[in-house]
What does this fold into?
Amino acid sequence: MHRRAFTGSLLSLLAAAPALAQSGSAPTIPEEALIQPVALAEILKAGNPPPLLQVGFSVMYSEAHIPGSIYAGPTGTEAGIEKLKTAVKAFDKSKPVVIYCGCCPWVRCPNVAGAYKTLTALGFAQIKVLYIADNFGADWADKGYPVAHG
Amino acid sequence: MAKRFAVLLLILFALPAAASPARAASAPAPVMAGSPAPDFIRPGLDGKPVALKSFSGKVVLVDFWASWCPPCIIEIPQLIGLQKKHAGKLQIIGVSMDDDAAAAKDVAGRFAFNYPLLMGDAKFGHRYGGILGLPSAFLIGRDGKIVKILRGELKPGELDRAIQSALGS
It folds into this structure.
């Protein structure tokens, strides 16, 4: 799929995604930067997804993560922020990048806001944050979306 | 020619496997109410071994938690209270899913824990069907079978009721 076509399909899926009932916390992340699990799952299904970064805890990543996602966390810590910066060094800042955690309910996630701020400060123009309302198990794995282990 | 073809096949199949061993890990087997509780023996944070089998005959609560999980921390005083209330009949075991023991030990020092704590990891989580969100707790009956799985933040009295029920059965 051409990049332009991919961006178009990404935007249309985002528009079709159900509106967020309550943006809750992680209050510094604007609503337009969020992507719903169903929309990301469709993008994965279509193939050629943008880079995916799990910015949470490594034990949780080892247990289960989105296939193809890179571990770069936990971004609630300085060390995790540095790991994220290193992970995205070679990324094209004009292209979409998706970050997610899922350790805790959205309102209590200690990682995604820091990751979003860092990528914004680095100049990334199309940051999408996977909105995980409760946790990765309930909102991704239990829905039957693809999962990798290890 | 045949030899070259064999080498090519070897490269095609062996290289991806070597490059991504993590992807080869399999999905955990489901664990549900009625299943025998997966056995374990692990060193506790205090260095003493913690063996599930050593508590046979008691109701056991295996509580998965982490220092970064606010509801897990909120629940700790409640768990300490329940361990005290049902002493001799109930055994709580706290399994930290922190990335490193230092964070768990820091929490251990902030509460007067009256039950053992140990470090978990992805393999441990897999044995319990995958711990993909915290808090998660497994209530195990006197017969060693899982009675109830509690995921997410507990409602007031929910855990005590489940324990009372397991103690009565």
Observations:
- The helical segments of chain A are 3-16, 37-46, 58-63, 78-87, 112-122, 136-139.
